[in-house]
Each structure stands twice: as structure tokens, then as C-alpha cells.
Amino acid sequence: xRFLVRDRILGIGDDYWIEDDRGNKVFLVDGKxxxxxxxxxxxxxxGRVLIDIRQKMFALRDTxxxxxxxxxxxxxxxxxxSLLRNHYRVALADGGTELDVSGRILxxxxxxxxxxxxxxxxxxxxxxxxxxxxxxxxxDDADPALLIAVAVCVIHLGEKEREDG
Length: 165
Known about the structure:
The structure is a single chain. This protein is mainly beta. It is built from one helix and twelve strands. It has one helix at 144-164; strands at 2-6, 15-20, 25-32, 39-44, 49-55, 63-68, 71-78, 87-92, 98-104, 109-114, 117-123, 132-137. The chain has a twelve-stranded antiparallel beta barrel with strand order 1-2-3-4-5-6-7-8-9-10-11-12. Strand 8 and strand 9 form a beta hairpin. It starts with a strand and ends with a helix.
């Protein structure tokens, strides 16, 4: 499954559509302005909230929390003790599953893996549409909404780190 995202710096209050490869609007990323912490909602085309994404308030390093129906689904943070600044860990709420995100986050060239197996590729290389990147969900049994939320989180954290650093 391929999704297309019009690239822009993810600021709070920015809303943007994610389309499928046929140009149909599939997901809306709704940035919530005027909040104490960075907050996004991932909605379906009908406006139903599928996933909430929030910055964790009291964390030693920037952390985003992904929730579904008010229940924690995953936590995203930059990998500890990594020489690469573009390496993130996604701890799923089940306590035992971790996804690995690595690549050139700010260039929109990175991958999401589980235990060495590719789940999704985020890339603008193969697209001819300017200022657009693709999210290719490789596995049929993967949760596209979760993988899109992970991409939103790591891009937001990467942009924030660039601004702060």
C-alpha cells in the first residue's frame, strides 16, 4: 500500500491530507494548536479519530505517545546511545515489541522495521511530484494507521531536534 504526503514542515496547527496512490484522501493529520504539548490526530476520510499523537510532557528526552481509543499504543523516542541522530525506537504498548526507525529523517528517506523485517519505507526518491514523499507499507498485515503515526512522530521529533540544536 502506498500513501502520498505533501511535504511541509510539520507545525502544530497544520492539517494535511494523506492520499492513496490513486489520489483518494485516506487520512487527515490534524495538528492541534494552542495546546501545552505538541498534539496531532490521525483521522479517516470521514473525520473519525483513529489515533491520537501527543508529546510526553515530563520526559528526559523528546518523546511522543501514540494512543488508540484512549489506550496507549506506542511510545516513540530517539534511540539512546546512538551515534546516528536519525535513529528512533518505537516501543509498542504490549511491552515486548519494538520497532526500529532509521535513515535520513529530515530528507524523508527512512525505514520502519521489526526484528530486521521491513514494515514500511518512507521515501521521496521514486516520486515525480515535487515536495511529496511516499509511505509504502510493505507488509499486508501491518497497521497502516500506526505506521503513518510513527512517520509523523519521527519527522516531528527530527524537525524539533533540528530547531533546538
